[in-house]
Amino acid sequence: MSELLQYLITGVGGGCAFALVGSGLVAIYRVTRVVNFAQGAFAVIAALTASTLLATGLPHGLAEGLAVAVGALTGLLVGLVAIGKPGTPPGAALIATLGLGVFAYAVEVLIWGDQPRSFPGVPGAVEIFGARFQAHYLLIIGATLAVFAGMGLLFTRTDVGRALSACASNPYAAKVVGISVTRMGLVSFAIGGALGGLAGVLVTPIQLVTFDYDVTLIVGGFAAAILGGLVRPALTLAGGLLLGVAQALVAGYGNAAYQMEVALVLMLAVMVWQAARKPIVQEETA
């Protein structure tokens, strides 16, 4: 029983990283209708930046905060390339993010090399009902819940959040009332960069990060986001936790080499299920 609980807790911790990456995808897609394939690169760049800043002697908290800011800035730069020109179709912007994601590999290898990096997180271990795990997992879970609660307040209680929601709901109507859809799209890219960067700095103490770790994060994040149709943050959180737990159980009771396959199978199953439901929904609303 303690072993199962340990897998569940570590799975929830790992799933939080997928949920944060997935929520970044959702924040960008809702406003711009662009699937951002560079989302995983934001996490890797922030993680590697944090490792460098900590190596220079900056204290924890400040180093990770600056790294998340670098992730947000990277997201803004990607947004400027992808949608900075008004009227850019989502398909063209998608290709741009894919190209920038590949280009990020070269930049990361040039700056940080190709060796895996990590840095210490919350020290010590915690034991709950016989299950022992790193205390850092509690930070990951707590930070993720706080971020999702903050996002809820952002979109419901602030003018920027309402403008983002207006662009997501009806961009044409948003333009009529004076909201710049392009500007809000860039804001969504910056938010996506910050969320991806946060995922990167949170997961690095429990997972060695290399320049190509973004593949794992983007696949897991997309699998989480697809559960909510790329538009529902709450379902993205649920999808990330489900995926993290499933992968932890597969690694614990089976073979860790199949963790990526778990994400792909889950994503495929959800897409097939959603495609099967659409005709039914259309018949009911006809």
UniProtKB/TrEMBL annotation:
* InterPro entries from the UniProt entry: ABC_transp_permease, BCAA_transport_permease
Coarse class of the protein's main subcellular location: membrane
- Which membrane topology describes this protein? Multi-pass membrane protein
The UniProt keyword set, sorted, is:
Amino-acid transport, Cell membrane, Membrane, Transmembrane, Transmembrane helix, Transport
Report the locations given in the UniProt record.
Cell membrane
Q: Which residues cross the membrane?
A: 6-29, 41-59, 65-84, 91-113, 133-155, 185-206, 218-244, 256-276
What protein family does this chain belong to?
Belongs to the binding-protein-dependent transport system permease family. LivHM subfamily.
The name this protein carries in UniProt is Branched-chain amino acid ABC transporter permease
Q: Which organism is it from?
A: Phytohabitans aurantiacus
